[in-house]
Design a protein that fits this description.
single chain; 203 residues; mainly alpha; Arc Repressor Mutant, subunit A; Tetracycline Repressor, domain 2; 10 helices; 74% helix; disordered C terminus
Length: 203
């Protein structure tokens, strides 16, 4: 098969796939996960159902592909935020953005559990943990982050704490959660050490 024809076919396939996933994203935003059907996706993407079934066997496969693209896009956005921020502001910028993303996650359905349990989510979680661990190590080296706890443990603390953003009612509440999380990362100060000493004496 000529290369030009091969490239054209591949471009067409990619265009159909992207149109399908874009349509799925709109439907999920408008109707929720459980209301998305193959017929609705085909109509929203302006393609025939037969064409859609050539690319995806069922709606779950479409939703998994959409979710994988969404998760990857979120990770890429966090990397861009890190790269745009000043060195002393990178950690806060990334954690704030992560908390906001966590605040928009889907809840309450078996399908949502399936999406969040996919292998692509595990890979993205590993990459996210590495990203935050590196930022924490840099912060500890600069004296902005506590060094008495290993950076990978602090990364786990951050991710677990900020995952609660999905249950918060407002952006202001998410901001307060980020502030509390960041406070736990600061190096222990003399006052804290003094308080511990005083407590030990009193005991």
């Amino acid at each position: 098969m000529p290369k030009l024809w091969t490239d054209t076919v591949e471009q067409h396939r990619q265009a159909v796939r992207e149109a399908t996933l874009d349509a799925t994203a709109r439907l999920v935003a408008e109707r929720g996960l459980t209301a998305v059907t193959m017929s609705a996706i085909a109509e929203q993407a302006s393609i025939g159902r037969a064409t859609l079934y050539k690319y995806f066997p069922d709606v779950e496969a479409v939703l998994l592909a959409w979710h994988e693209r969404q998760v990857g896009g979120h990770l890429e956005e966090l990397v861009r935020i890190r790269d745009r921020a000043a060195p002393d502001q990178r950690l806060e910028a990334v954690l704030t953005s992560y908390a906001r993303l966590a605040g928009h996650r889907q809840h309450g359905t078996d399908l949502a559990a399936l999406l969040h349990g996919g292998e692509h989510v595990a890979r993205a979680h590993q990459q996210l943990t590495a990203l935050i661990t590196d930022l924490l190590a840099d912060g500890a080296g600069a004296g902005r982050v506590r060094a008495d706890v290993p950076p990978d443990e602090l990364a786990g603390y951050c991710l677990h704490a900020l995952s609660a953003a999905g249950d918060l009612p407002s952006p202001a509440a998410v901001g307060r959660l980020v502030a509390v999380t960041l406070a736990g990362l600061r190096p222990p100060g003399p006052a804290t050490a003094g308080s511990r000493s005083a407590g030990g004496t009193a005991g």
